[in-house]
Amino acid sequence: MIERIENPRIVGSEEISRLISDGIIPVIQFSEKAYDRKILKNIDSLCINFGESLEVRFYGHYNSDFDASWLEFLPNVANLSIDCMQSIRNEAALEKLENLKKLSFGIYDFEDREFLSRLKLDKVEKLVVGDNHKNCFDLSSLSKCRNLVELFISGHTKGIQSIGALPKLQVLTLGSIPKKQDLGFVNSLANLKRLTILLGGRESISEITNPNIEELEIIRVRGFGELDNIDRFKKLNILEIEDQIRLKRLDFEKSLPSLKYLRIANCKELDTIEGIERLRNIEHIRIYKTNLDLEKFVKQSFPKTLKILAVYTGKSKIDKKLRQTLDEMGFLE
User: pLDDT at residue 255 above 90?
Assistant: First the structure.
């Protein structure tokens, strides 16, 4: 859960402490130049106390460039987001930030190919690199991010193979990656646990065979129509597939002993799922808007471990009837 504190004039330490104690992520954010030296120094003192648990964000600034020189008043910021912006100036100020643990950067009109290489990223554990109108960043310098645990890349592909050398990377999201880009570098990530393929285009992810992946998510990838040999992901615990209009079939030809959660949403051509009975530890299945014959689907023999089964067509009368059937079978929603 996130609590956003928008364009504040002052922020109290007690408020931030309370939010963090309640398990809420506090985000102090500015959508316009509503800040001055005083409030930024106030926020910097909070950064000293709360470190990466406190996010400081600059976004929007629709009527002007974001002047990054204001960051000189935030030398202790550990969790910084500068994103959802059109343009920036004095970006060299980011090069002076030495305490960053989490960084999100996404400026649309920004073409400095070597920008990442000049940042102090050796301590960074979470990095988000948003797209720009040319997707021109050279990612080769990411190889120096030896402490990186979580990475989100959108659009950029130059030097993308360097990601494969990150020894601690556990969570990887690849957004808007063109189909010509081979993703085989993912197989070198010995500690990768979660992989998300988002947008972009490709027919399959057959080149990805990393057996350590525990969570796989495929969302709105143009042309995606094949997910064969799913059992190559031997440790897979969670599988989510969404908005894949060309995917017609899903086969669990062999057992996936770790798979507990399966979610398929808005895959309108999907008419066949084979091998559900082989998922001997499955606990939770959710299916929404497919071409499956759901009345037939729910009557099959399911593993005894399955507790939650929810299926929806998007048509209220049919869904109500299906839910009644599942309730009678003892499945939770």
Answer: no
The DSSP secondary-structure symbol of 65 reads -
Cβ proximity of 163 and 169 under 8 Å? yes
- Confidence bin at 236 (pLDDT 50/70/90): very high
What's the pTM value of the predicted model, to 2 decimals?
0.96
Tokens 């109500």 correspond to 320
What does the DSSP assignment read for 62-97? TTS-EEGGGGGG-TT-SEEEEEEES-EE-GGGGGG-
* Cα–Cα distance, 3 to 20 (Å, whole number): 10
Which residue blocks in the chain are alpha helix, DSSP H? 13-21, 37-50, 294-297, 316-329
Region 75-83: mean pLDDT is 98
The CA distance from 310 to 96, in Å, is 51
Nearest alpha carbon to residue 113 among 69, 75, 157: 157
Where do we find the tokens 């350590």? 212
Residues 121 and 107: their CA atoms lie apart, in Å, by: 18
Is residue 285 classed as helix, strand or coil in its secondary structure? strand
Residue 325's pLDDT is 95
Q: Which of 333, 312, 332 is nearest to 322 (CA)?
A: 312
CB contact at 8 A, 8 and 39? yes
- What is the model's pLDDT at position 17? 97
